[in-house]
Predict the structure.
Amino acid sequence: MPDPHSLGDVLAHRRWVRRRRPFDHVVSTDVFTPDFYGQLHDQVQGILDDPEMFARNMPGYDASSCELKTHREGPLGVFTSRAWHDTLAGIWGVEATGDVSATLHHHAPGGKSGWPHNDLNPSWFPGPPPKSDEIQMVENDLVDHQRGTRAEGVEARENVRAVAVLFYLGNPAWSPGDGGETGLFESASAAAHGPSAVVPPINNSMVMFECTPFTWHSFLTNRKPRTSVVMWLHRTKEDAVSTWGEQSIVHWG
């Protein structure tokens, strides 16, 4: 994997495009160099080939997932590096905590479209805040990341999602009509009218946005397999409340 303190050897460029509609988001294609993307592709294919790696553990969400924390030693470790974290936080001007939730999501062909949601959810992490050169991953065996339940004496912190990132990889070539896009919506009730913008799941491309009360998005049904890294950076709950208000935080059902 690359130097955790530098991305210079693996990023192909910094031509990341900010778009305004229906909400501020950044898109980029050919994110990593061809050589490094090839390494990512190979690692993900190895994971996809092992049926025991993925679990259907997201109620109401027609996909399976695999935690990235068990694959940090290979190329996929770039997504849980402090350099990647700080780069994304800097783009959005967010005072992120160093806490990261990162998974591989896989949608088999024919996956059901999701529902518009904004990702402004709480997330709990164990222990004290990580140091400026560290990353703390979700540790559900210590602290339930959605509700904070834990054994007596286990220290934990409540954060709120701050930046969402989807990076597409390990997929067959995509053409219009194949589906699997990330749909971006004007409002929570806009699903009936369709998305205002879509981001196709093209390999080595990504979309990211700050999690706000207005960042409505969802998965759109697919005709081909769709795999992506889905990850979030976090801000303290106090920061989220002062920025968006307590009432804007969407607690888990």
The mean pLDDT is 94. Residues 34-48 form the longest helix (15 residues).
